From TrEMBL:
Organism: Mycena maculata
Keywords: Cell wall biogenesis/degradation, Disulfide bond, Glycoprotein, Glycosidase, Hydrolase, Lyase, Repeat, Secreted, Signal
GO terms, molecular function: galacturan 1,4-alpha-galacturonidase activity; lyase activity; polygalacturonase activity
UniProt-listed PANTHER family: EXOPOLYGALACTURONASE C-RELATED, PTHR31736
Broad class of enzyme this protein falls into: hydrolase
Secretion signal, residue range per the UniProt entry: 1-15
Upper taxonomic lineage: Eukaryota, Fungi, Dikarya, Basidiomycota, Agaricomycotina
Superkingdom assignment: Eukaryota
Protein name: galacturonan 1,4-alpha-galacturonidase
Main location: secreted
GO biological process: carbohydrate metabolic process; cell wall organization
Amino acid sequence: MLFSLLLLQASAAFAWDTFTVPHLPGEDDTPGLLALVSNHASNATIMFNKGVTYNIFIAIKFPVLTNVEIRIEGNLTYPTNITAIQDVVGSSSFPGSWFTFSGGDNVTLRGSTDPHWGWVDAHGQAWWDAVQQTNRPHGWAFNKITNGVIRDMKLWKPIGWNFATSDSVDVHIYNNRIMAVSDSSSFPFNTDGFSAGGTNLLFENNVVYNGDDCLTVGSGAFNITWRNGYCEGGHGLSIGSLGEGGAVANVQNVLIESTIMQSCLYAARFKSWTGGNGIARNITWKDITFLNVPFPIYVTQNYWDQEDGPPPNVSSTLNNTHIADFLFDGFTGVIRDTPFVEGSCVTDPCWYYVANATGREVVILDLYPGTATDVLAKDIVARTETGREVDVMCNATAISTDVGFKCWDGPFIRTKAGL
Ligand SMILES: *[C@@H]1O[C@H](CO)[C@@H](O)[C@H](O)[C@H]1NC(C)=O
Ligand SMILES: *[C@@H]1O[C@H](CO)[C@@H](O)[C@H](O)[C@H]1NC(C)=O
Ligand SMILES: *[C@@H]1O[C@H](CO)[C@@H](O)[C@H](O)[C@H]1NC(C)=O
Ligand SMILES: *[C@@H]1O[C@H](CO)[C@@H](O)[C@H](O)[C@H]1NC(C)=O
Ligand SMILES: *[C@@H]1O[C@H](CO)[C@@H](O)[C@H](O)[C@H]1NC(C)=O
Ligand SMILES: *[C@@H]1O[C@H](CO)[C@@H](O)[C@H](O)[C@H]1NC(C)=O
Ligand SMILES: *[C@@H]1O[C@H](CO)[C@@H](O)[C@H](O)[C@H]1NC(C)=O
Ligand SMILES: *[C@@H]1O[C@H](CO)[C@@H](O)[C@H](O)[C@H]1NC(C)=O
Ligand SMILES: *[C@@H]1O[C@H](CO)[C@@H](O)[C@H](O)[C@H]1NC(C)=O
Ligand SMILES: *[C@@H]1O[C@H](CO)[C@@H](O)[C@H](O)[C@H]1NC(C)=O
């Protein structure tokens, strides 16, 4: 009798409980949320109920969590007041993102599969229309988590970058949807989809409509897989930018596959700054479909930000981020070769302008001598919208191996390695 009572108590102590986030109409729900999650930072589900729109009026930093699921079945709303958000972002206590996780084990961030609920609405349209770029909050920082899950999340009109996993290990990120789509002619600047940092990250079945990188893999990233994705309107499946301000980069073992790139500026993209250092190694983009994309494959070791004025003159004393074992395998699609001005272009020429390009290049390899080895593009099947020839640009003196096509500035001519 006593024994079974003890057992009952023991199992009760370790029981998994669900706690609902309190909501007060018109009020900020973050104090209630923070109190709840601080009291139940382990073995718990923290539930945002369906049928409720929660007010997330200030940025929130979660405590270190163990065995916790954050479940978003209701809607979440940022303030509609731009100045109110800028005040929070500009304050010294701003944790870095509107939702910041920093540390924890077995943490799940889970949205809703109900199409009408589970949306996180940042009201970005007003920011885009005002071209308001001061103190824009990033969305979700999932930092220093081991054994994490981000699934079924749905972000509506974000203001800035969306998800970032910095220094996290073993995270599965799937079935998420980002809708940074403007209803007007304004552009959703810097709405990067997924920023991959950490080790052993698996991204699957994510859908991103946005105005910047769909995926961006940063320095320190190891063993990253992205597959079965759909990206529309943004700036591609990117490694980098790396090496800004002489930074030493290290990115290894990345596989990006089976993804559709619709009306993006780039499909596969690598970018490092002149004067950086370090290495990006063993990076594969495989089975990529591109539609209405002006630059399907674009590698530059000479990346530059349009806001920073003219790029430096290349000098042989500068280091560069090395690239090795890059494979572009199985690219099929249509190059956008009709005139266009992409929405992020605010200078003349545009930041993505390539001197002497024909606008029909399926591959551009903008490489420095002696810093790129084993770059190969194979099984590339491309045509242009206008039916004209497909071209390439490639710095022949910079690379000694067969890149899969004739390395020159001219028509695309496949070589043996490219078959
Ligand atoms: C959480 O549950 C585990 C068993 O799954 C148990 O070992 C641990 O003590 C629990 N933690 C707390 C704070 O109750
Ligand atoms: C990890 O969290 C999930 C819920 O998200 C839970 O079902 C599972 O039991 C947890 N694992 C451990 C080892 O506690
Ligand atoms: C917006 O927020 C600012 C700063 O908090 C405040 O001064 C202003 O009154 C708010 N505007 C409205 C319409 O609520
Ligand atoms: C939840 O938010 C989304 C995005 O703002 C909106 O489209 C949807 O109508 C909201 N759901 C309900 C039930 O209000
Ligand atoms: C990367 O993955 C490989 C193979 O799955 C594994 O052996 C290696 O330990 C992983 N690297 C890290 C840093 O976890
Ligand atoms: C290259 O990366 C892939 C993952 O994309 C991994 O499976 C493979 O082991 C890596 N190769 C080397 C030589 O590290
Ligand atoms: C680069 O060199 C050109 C010609 O030598 C010079 O006019 C220009 O000012 C230099 N740019 C920078 C950023 O040093
Ligand atoms: C290039 O890198 C080497 C070693 O990593 C370093 O000693 C040198 O100062 C770097 N050069 C520049 C211009 O940063
Ligand atoms: C563009 O082509 C012209 C003529 O071939 C050449 O003089 C010039 O150096 C090229 N510019 C660049 C940036 O490659
Ligand atoms: C590669 O060659 C092109 C001309 O074809 C040139 O404009 C570009 O600066 C070169 N890239 C690098 C990184 O030197």
